[in-house]
Amino acid sequence: MAQAPVSMSIRAEFEERFADSRAMFERSRQVIPSGITHDGRYLKPFPVYVQRAAGAHKWTVDGHKLIDFSMGHGSLILGHNDPEVLAAVQAALPMGTHFGAGHEGEIAWAEQIIRMMPGADRVKFTLSGTEATLLAIRVARAYTGKSVILKFEGHFHGWNDYLLKGERPPFEGAPMPGIPRETLDTVSVVPADLAYVEERLSQGDIAGVIIEPSGGSWAMVPLPEGFLAGLRALATKYDAPLIFDEVITGFRWAPGGAQERLGITPDLTTLAKIVAGGMPGGAVTGSAALMRHLEFSDEPGWNTTRKVRHQGTYNSNPVAAAAGVTCLRRCADPAVQAQCDEMATRLRVGLNGILADRDAPGIAWGDSSVFHLALGVASTDVHLGDVQYPSGMSAEALKASAQGPLTATLQQGMLIEGVDLFASGGLLSLAHTDEDLDRTLAAFDRVVVRMGEDGLFESV
């Protein structure tokens, strides 16, 4: 795909309108690498800085109100400062932020997860999704006594040393600064092809299989129809624990996550984001047989040779537990997910309609309550059930297109119009309204027209 030019008019207006954010960015760069604390917030020439948030909106230091589609990187399905979650946090704070001991809140939190997730017999809390996926693969390795983890091209499982491999194109051979080659050799990256998966599993060294059940990068890279059911059967056949990374899909695809929605139960599940109600927190859940490896036992030698070690200073701290259990009790009502799904469908349809009306190359796609956008891409669409996806594009091409040369200009243009995308997509929440969607579609229409007038689609 040809490199598109940058719209100087959009960039110039962006720099003018967000001058206070630029000043804060310059200050940040003096003390924080590249001025950001999460690589996903990188944006040229600078990211915006936010002062406060409420519902489906946030306000920048420049005084601009934005419709938010990042929503705490997907954690805020109820919206910013949901009154019930906020009240639970406010009630927990005076009681203490860290007991250094067990407490009733963590028990209630685990009980709620077990009630909701089909594959959950036991729960162990972590502080993030990255920690959850790291713990899950450690449990799988302890259970099987094997070392190699199987993962899929384009799937994201956090930034731990093992699972960054194969997340971004090129999937094979991409440099991984700071990660030893010996570590990377314990992870095998394969395409979503059942014949390929079985050939790899038959080699007998796979300790576990981890996958985003939504498809790679929260439905950016769709899975072939029937793939998950086939993968479940193969994992069982070769006694390789199947791990669903439900850090984003958990409680968003359904009250019981993608495993409930799709009717496929994994052996282990990793959770974060919604599970903690917007506070820092994650979890690993799974069958009693696998989760046993996190337990102490009087069985001779177990605690030194079989038990998986797991600490974490802030695991299940009482404030996160209060937010988490309150949020999950709300998310147990399937009307929450249904409302968010309906809005996302309307948004995806509207975005594609604008692209067609303006004869602009690109497509919007996604599943459940998420959407992705790729501009400058000539692609027809295909329907898998009621979900629209780009067709004729490999996983590598899909990820490259959604992170392509027009993405920064699209983000800048939408910020000018009062809309904050999560890179080239976004996630819906219960707090979004029909008015928010109308404003977003009108903003997108204006940005697409402007990009066309600047000649950004001419090379496609």
Describe this structure in words.
By secondary structure, this protein is of the alpha/beta class. It folds into two domains: 8-80 and 335-453, Alpha-Beta Complex (Aspartate Aminotransferase, domain 1), CATH 3.90.1150; 98-316, Aspartate Aminotransferase, domain 2 (3-Layer(aba) Sandwich). Helices cover 39% and strands 15% of the residues. It has 18 helices and 16 strands. The chain has helices at 8-17, 19-29, 71-74, 83-92, 104-116, 129-144, 181-184, 194-201, 216-219, 227-237, 257-262, 288-291, 302-305, 318-331, 334-357, 395-402, 407-416, 434-453, and strands spanning 50-54, 57-60, 65-68, 122-126, 148-152, 187-190, 206-211, 242-245, 268-271, 282-286, 362-365, 370-375, 381-384, 387-390, 419-420, 425-427. The chain has a seven-stranded mixed beta sheet with strand order 4-10-9-8-7-5-6, with helices on both faces. Strand 1 (50-54) and strand 2 form a beta hairpin. Helix 4 (83-92) runs antiparallel to helix 14 (318-331). The longest helix has 24 residues, at 334-357.
